[in-house]
């Protein structure tokens, strides 16, 4: 499970787009390009030199998905998967986390460019984590992700944010 961890400062670690996917999560640092609604800083360093991943969910093809996923891996203990989420701009399509085909997290809305922590309890055994940004119908809303980590045992705090209602 340790192989899940990534700050995205020097690459994608073990996270990849699915074979054959036409769209992908991208690494970015620095100010948001004008056509996008990205965070102004990453989470790791909280500055413009830090990198994060983003899914450009704002542009056309409403309902289609942009996916980054882990390899299949085996964990002999339950573990806590954590990451930081940032959704910015007009109402954006949902951001969904899967373990294989099971939805383990689903959030929609605008976090107003604030990084929010998410912690998810994952069972032991074979797992495959997938982060999915779903494209919305507006032209200015994107999803960002940073600082993925996985540690054995239960998450120390329950994950409480499931929706952003301010739009
Ligand atoms: Ca980072």
TrEMBL record:
<dbReference type="InterPro" id="IPR000998">
    <property type="entry name" value="MAM_dom"/>
</dbReference>
<dbReference type="InterPro" id="IPR051560">
    <property type="entry name" value="MAM_domain-containing"/>
</dbReference>
<dbReference type="GO" id="GO:0016020">
    <property type="term" value="C:membrane"/>
</dbReference>
<dbReference type="InterPro" id="IPR013320">
    <property type="entry name" value="ConA-like_dom_sf"/>
</dbReference>
<dbReference type="Pfam" id="PF00629">
    <property type="entry name" value="MAM"/>
</dbReference>
<protein>
    <recommendedName>
        <fullName>MAM domain-containing protein</fullName>
    </recommendedName>
</protein>
<feature type="domain" description="MAM">
    <location>
        <begin position="4"/>
        <end position="157"/>
    </location>
</feature>
């Amino acid at each position: 499970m340790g192989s899940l961890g990534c700050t995205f400062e020097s690459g994608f670690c073990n996270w990849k787009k699915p074979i054959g996917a036409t769209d992908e999560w991208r690494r970015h640092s620095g100010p948001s390009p004008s056509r996008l609604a990205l965070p102004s800083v990453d989470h790791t360093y909280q500055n413009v030199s830090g990198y994060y991943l983003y899914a450009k969910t704002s542009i056309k093809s409403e309902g289609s998905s942009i996916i980054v996923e882990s390899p299949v891996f085996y964990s002999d203990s339950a573990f806590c998967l954590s990451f930081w989420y940032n959704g910015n701009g007009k109402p954006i399509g949902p951001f969904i986390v899967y373990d294989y085909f099971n939805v383990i997290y689903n959030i929609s809305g605008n976090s107003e460019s604030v990084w929010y922590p998410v912690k998810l309890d994952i069972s032991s055994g074979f797992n495959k984590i997938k982060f999915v940004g779903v494209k919305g119908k507006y032209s200015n809303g994107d999803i960002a992700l940073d600082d993925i980590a996985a540690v054995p045992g239960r998450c120390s705090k329950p994950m409480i944010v499931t929706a952003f209602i301010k739009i």
